[in-house]
Amino acid sequence: MSDYRIWLCLVVLVGICSVLVNGLGVNWGTMASHPLPPKIVVQMLKANKIQKVKIFDADSSTMEALAGSGIEVMVAIPNNMLGYMIDYDTAKQWVKHNVSRYNFQGGVNIKYVAVGNEPFLTTYNGSFLNITLPALQNVQAALNSAGVGDSIKATVPLNADVYNSPASNPVPSAGRFRADISDLMTQIVSFLHSSGAPFTVNIYPFLSLYDNPNFPVDYAFFDGTSSPVVDSNGIQYNNVFDANFDTLVSALTAVGLGDLPIIVGEVGWPTEGDVNAKMAYAQRFYNGLLLKLSANQGTPRRPNQYVEVYMFSLIDEDAKSIMPGNFERHWGIFRYDGQPKFALDYARQGQEMLPVSASGVQYLPQRWCVFSGSGDLSKLGDNINYACSRSDCTALGYGSSCNGLDSNGNASFAFNMYFQVQNQQPQSCYFQGLAVETTQNPSTPECNFTIQIVYNGAAASSVAQLGAVFVIFLWLFSVTV
Ligand SMILES: *[C@@H]1O[C@H](CO)[C@@H](O)[C@H](O)[C@H]1NC(C)=O
Ligand SMILES: *[C@@H]1O[C@H](CO)[C@@H](O)[C@H](O)[C@H]1NC(C)=O
Ligand SMILES: *[C@@H]1O[C@H](CO)[C@@H](O)[C@H](O)[C@H]1NC(C)=O
Ligand SMILES: *[C@@H]1O[C@H](CO)[C@@H](O)[C@H](O)[C@H]1NC(C)=O
Ligand SMILES: *[C@@H]1O[C@H](CO)[C@@H](O)[C@H](O)[C@H]1NC(C)=O
């Protein structure tokens, strides 16, 4: 497309874009072996006009990078700290150190405090059931007492498994809070209502598909389905996102709070680690979602409304647990290094634009570690397992981009992932004599053998040299003094 047409689009679409931007947030997780520097991430958010971000802690380097950006932030208290928050003084200390401290002109624009993260997942065996509400109450009280309670609200991001419809009547209008926590949920939503806070829910159409092989694929997306769900009230649902959202609306209505504001704390699609976790599906999902959001369609039960949504997620995280599945490390709309994976229809005009990539990212040198093809082959399996248990080999799995490698390719891939995680240290490419370093890129058209980015003093050659010079300088200096 020629330049003037792009400019024309930009001018025409400014109004629409600003609506979209208003609705669009993103989750920024940092469970990576080599997280991008926070300043680079914030620059990337700004370059992509993302104005809301949800983080999973209140890490000071993240907060310092966000300071002055104007970006709205949801900070979080991780589940393992919820127990402490049942003590009001501890909650006050937490607010003082992690919220009030940033509350100044040019500080961090905190809007929400997430109290826990999906604390009622059944896999937690009820560990957080009796501490979440007291923690929520104490944190909001602490925010109020610090004088910021009017503008900063405590909420609890919950998985959509806290509500459901009965199997006998699986329609949104039959939605109720999960039977085992229904009293607790009623108390929590009453509290959110009284404090003026929204309900925060994470909705995952991908997981509906992943968990149920009979799930109709097109119902997970937004471009029409051959198997709509027709509710008893006559409403027809063409996508599971709307149906899920409205199931929550029904559950809230059933406890007398049908108007409680809802924000979607997480929604997204992974690109690797399962047959359905592919780039084309992620792109289809996001573009359908963005179109819907930018049009402020709302859902059948809450039509014509702006829905506040945080995409999950910003960047791939290679150190996340893969208990939920191999896809867990591949939710990013950006790769580990801040390169966009696919184009997004920011402007809802069928024009998909590649998001702006992170700038100033430093990579390790162009070196890989591969299987040498010789050595004690009886030790190969153990060495591959060793490498994969300490790095991310999920791209090798069934349905993933590197699943087509032969067994030698598998070994090379595993060795390289470990070598990169270890910042290419020479001794990390040994594997009992089975591995060798190379400067020839072993990637195939389908499968990337990645080069890690520089992290924490891990050295790209130029940085290493600079560092070495600096160290020598310091040493000389100290010797001289
Ligand atoms: C928040 O504040 C507490 C002090 O109450 C501190 O221990 C903690 O490390 C702070 N940071 C985060 C990320 O929670
Ligand atoms: C929950 O219970 C199951 C079975 O009793 C156990 O295997 C699992 O480790 C428990 N999980 C947690 C988080 O306590
Ligand atoms: C939560 O419940 C467990 C047992 O169900 C109990 O041991 C614990 O003291 C309770 N904690 C609070 C804060 O009520
Ligand atoms: C490569 O590794 C993956 C994952 O462990 C496995 O599914 C696949 O069968 C392996 N391929 C070969 C040729 O060994
Ligand atoms: C491999 O990485 C490059 C960027 O370095 C990207 O353009 C390409 O799409 C990736 N290929 C696969 C199969 O992921």
From TrEMBL:
<keyword id="KW-0732">Signal</keyword>
<feature type="transmembrane region" description="Helical">
    <location>
        <begin position="453"/>
        <end position="477"/>
    </location>
</feature>
<keyword id="KW-1003">Cell membrane</keyword>
<keyword id="KW-0336">GPI-anchor</keyword>
<keyword id="KW-0325">Glycoprotein</keyword>
<keyword id="KW-0611">Plant defense</keyword>
<dbReference type="Pfam" id="PF07983">
    <property type="entry name" value="X8"/>
</dbReference>
<keyword id="KW-0812">Transmembrane</keyword>
<dbReference type="Pfam" id="PF00332">
    <property type="entry name" value="Glyco_hydro_17"/>
</dbReference>
<dbReference type="GO" id="GO:0006952">
    <property type="term" value="P:defense response"/>
</dbReference>
<dbReference type="InterPro" id="IPR044965">
    <property type="entry name" value="Glyco_hydro_17_plant"/>
</dbReference>
<dbReference type="InterPro" id="IPR012946">
    <property type="entry name" value="X8"/>
</dbReference>
<keyword id="KW-1133">Transmembrane helix</keyword>
<dbReference type="GO" id="GO:0005975">
    <property type="term" value="P:carbohydrate metabolic process"/>
</dbReference>
<keyword id="KW-0378">Hydrolase</keyword>
<dbReference type="InterPro" id="IPR000490">
    <property type="entry name" value="Glyco_hydro_17"/>
</dbReference>
<dbReference type="GO" id="GO:0098552">
    <property type="term" value="C:side of membrane"/>
</dbReference>
<comment type="similarity">
    <text>Belongs to the glycosyl hydrolase 17 family.</text>
</comment>
<protein>
    <recommendedName>
        <fullName>glucan endo-1,3-beta-D-glucosidase</fullName>
        <ecNumber>3.2.1.39</ecNumber>
    </recommendedName>
</protein>
<keyword id="KW-0326">Glycosidase</keyword>
<keyword id="KW-1015">Disulfide bond</keyword>
<dbReference type="GO" id="GO:0042973">
    <property type="term" value="F:glucan endo-1,3-beta-D-glucosidase activity"/>
</dbReference>
<keyword id="KW-0449">Lipoprotein</keyword>
<feature type="domain" description="X8">
    <location>
        <begin position="367"/>
        <end position="449"/>
    </location>
</feature>
<dbReference type="GO" id="GO:0005886">
    <property type="term" value="C:plasma membrane"/>
</dbReference>
<keyword id="KW-0472">Membrane</keyword>
